[in-house]
């Protein structure tokens, strides 16, 4: 610990003083993580707050570019057998682990890192990635093979997840569980200092293996500094004052201050702040418990009436400043090949049709229908109140039940909520990752099928989708499955999310994609 404190002390003085971006020509990129960071061990990178710093510290075999295409990383190339079962990766021979390891990465390091993910003595939340993998092995220093039990077209994309990063056995074994706070990887930045809840500092890796198009070694930045301001209004003020270089997404506490109702930057900020908006692979929805046969919601007609009974576009305009797209299509979001922009199987606002379905279900004008309980969290209370008001006009009365996030997740997993608010952010960029929520084998608590939906037709299509490798045929299967799911209405799709990245005008080169990956390798900050 003393060695770490001495090494980082000069940089910490720079950061603690909230000095300008460049001090003695040092470029320091500053962002905030309100949710805190639980670990810097990639094997446990289960949410965005962990994924972002881990992406700066580690690399895997492959990576995703801005268009979500799989690109080389430590693996410079690969081949896939004709039956889609065996993947052979050829590794670069110039990738070095950070200090104090300071040695070249080999295929045996990937063998160790993957074994660690599936180790039952300390199970990683990413172990599911390898559920259909039969084996992996290092053939030699630069050749690594993986064999699947069944062909699975999205598998390469799964390997781009942070879980699959390579780590050195020396440091993992040296620190044990404390590797979480003593990370060592191969990434563009290396660990410098972390005082939990106060500040995290990463410094440039001078030996990073990737170069830009002109042959210059990446990254350009000298350091990354992460703070942990919890209050969103304070965070916004710090960004506006220039004490942060970057702000992600939008909070209700300041959305009307910075954005117009149409979702554009207000004039007073447009001259000094840049906003980049892209689709986000996140579907926000309400889910019904399909196994609760005693609930009136077991009737498909009532579920469909709810879907038709509120104006999503109006909801987006007044509650979200048009950040995102109204969920009038299927469950697969904008930004994926399986998304059908011309889909006729979603639900738009149609109150007359909702009233007809309500009457067919035996509740004309809502008469005889008991109050329905909708479980949500405080962050989505405004949306649920909006539904409560709109559906109340049709005679569908709702009791909004606000829960802590952890409590709601537990209710969903255990099937203890008849109606709940959920969201699904892609683990990897494939429509299959969304449609798996409706496969019977993934019903809770073991999997993500929180609605406990079961349909033999959907299951058959899903199994075919998993095995299909042709992109055109996969898209057809996705849309057919999405259509069937929406006709049964186990969910109410609220909206497809959108990424908003705010930076000051002196920041350039920030890259992202529809999975909201934070790529700092090409970022520059000018004084």
Folded structure, characterized:
- The chain is α+β, with helices and mostly antiparallel strands and 527 residues long.
- It is built from 16 helices and 20 strands.
- The strands form 6 sheets. The chain has a 5-stranded mixed sheet with strand order 1-2-11-10-9, with helices on one face.
- A hairpin with a 5-residue loop joins β3 and β4.
- α9 runs antiparallel to α11 and α15 runs antiparallel to α16.
- The protein is globular, with a radius of gyration of 24 Å.
Summarize the structure.
The chain is an alpha+beta fold and 527 residues long. It contains 16 helices and 20 strands. The relative contact order is 0.14.
Keywords for this entry:
D-Maltodextrin-Binding Protein, domain 2; five-stranded antiparallel β-sheet; globular; single chain; alpha+beta; Dipeptide-binding Protein, domain 3; Dipeptide-binding Protein, domain 1; 527 residues; 20 strands; 22% strand
SSE blueprint:
Elements: H1 2-16, E1 22-23, E2 26-32, H2 48-57, E3 62-64, E4 70-72, E5 75-80, E6 86-91, H3 107-117, E7 133-140, E8 143-148, H4 155-159, H5 169-175, E9 189-195, E10 199-204, E11 223-227, H6 232-240, E12 246-248, H7 255-258, H8 267-270, E13 273-288, H9 300-308, H10 312-319, E14 325-326, H11 351-360, E15 372-376, H12 381-392, E16 398-402, H13 405-414, E17 419-425, H14 432-435, H15 456-467, H16 471-488, E18 491-504, E19 507-508, E20 524-525
Parallel strand pairs: 2-11, 15-16
Antiparallel strand pairs: 1-2, 3-4, 5-6, 6-8, 7-8, 9-10, 10-11, 12-18, 13-17, 13-18, 14-18, 19-20
